[in-house]
Amino acid sequence: MNTDMDFSEVAVHCSKKDGYGMEIVVGGYIRKEFSENIHNPPYAHVRWEESGKLVCSRFLIENEKLPETESDIKTVDETDVPLSSIASKIVQWAKEKPKRFAGENDRTNWESMRNSWNDIVDYCRECLGEESDGMTGRNQNNIQDMACCRPYKTGLPVNIWIDEAESYKNVNSTKCIYFQINKTQKFQTQNTCTMTLDGNIPEDDLTEARKKEDFDLEQNELEEVSNFVINNSYALEKVSDQLLWLDEFWNIFIKGGIKAAPEAMELLKEKTDGFVLKHDV
């Protein structure tokens, strides 16, 4: 399995920009129980707007066979919103070729979703199989539920992880991001450190990170990550609480690690509030 993958991109299989009026995400919210190798059945999240309101639900993707009718699109359990208003679109989309991923055009969207699920499950198992090397089990589990973001996306020198599913509540933690403590391109969840959304690194976490042989960040590079978080903190908070979608964040965020002007941060706040208000209508 190729671990050098951009899961922040792979996770979003159908964007609002694709013309279906929905967003389909695989991987970002996986919950797994690895004891006795048991995990949830493969599923995807679907989000759409109905009567001016944002609606979220899940559907199973465990069947290798392409869905033929709306009845083939099934929710994971009774807690999910019924899919009657969106099932036909999912069926239509599932049969088509991927528009979003290079090298995937020999597969259907359905196959691409299933492949992503399998890759991410393998990736998470690999991460959990590694020694924590100073990273607590609580943090290790928490990071699996966060979106991985590469430097080309953020403008930072390192990989970072952004909470888009209220993961901080699962571990009774404050809102934060994780950043990789080296500039290796491959995601290394065992080599990460937390940063709260005020741009600060908990002193104990930074002390432990500096003890690792893999730590290779200079102070100016840490400051870049801090500036990025401070610049975007208002929007990142909304993403953490699922009030702002991650793809919306990428359309308005302040890229890079240079401290932004107050005017730029105020504009980001206005754009963020615009999206949040739209979802609340």
List keywords for this structure.
14% strand, four-stranded antiparallel beta sheet, disordered N terminus, 281 residues, single chain
Structural account:
- The structure is a single chain.
- This protein has ten helices and eight strands.
- With 281 residues, the protein is α+β, with helices and mostly antiparallel strands.
- A four-stranded antiparallel β-sheet has the order 1-2-3-4, sandwiched between helices. Strands 5-6-7-8 form a four-stranded antiparallel β-sheet.
- Helix 8 (219-240) packs parallel to helix 10.
- The longest helix has 22 residues, at 219-240.
- The protein is globular, with a radius of gyration of 19 Å.
- The model is unreliable at 1-10, 28-39 and 128-141 (pLDDT under 50).
Alpha plus pi helix count = 10
Unreliable spans = 1-10, 28-39, 128-141
Q: What is the CA-atom radius of gyration, in angstroms?
A: 19 Å
Helical content band: 25-40%
Structure classification = alpha+beta
Residue share in β-strands: 5-15%
Instruction: State the major sheet.
Output: 4 strands, antiparallel
Could you give the count of β-strands? 8
- Strand order, biggest sheet? 1-2-3-4
- For the record, give the distance between the C-alpha atoms at the N and C termini, rounded to a whole number: 43 Å
Approximate shape = globular
Please, what is the average pLDDT? 80
Helix/strand order: HEEEEHHHEHEHEEHHHH
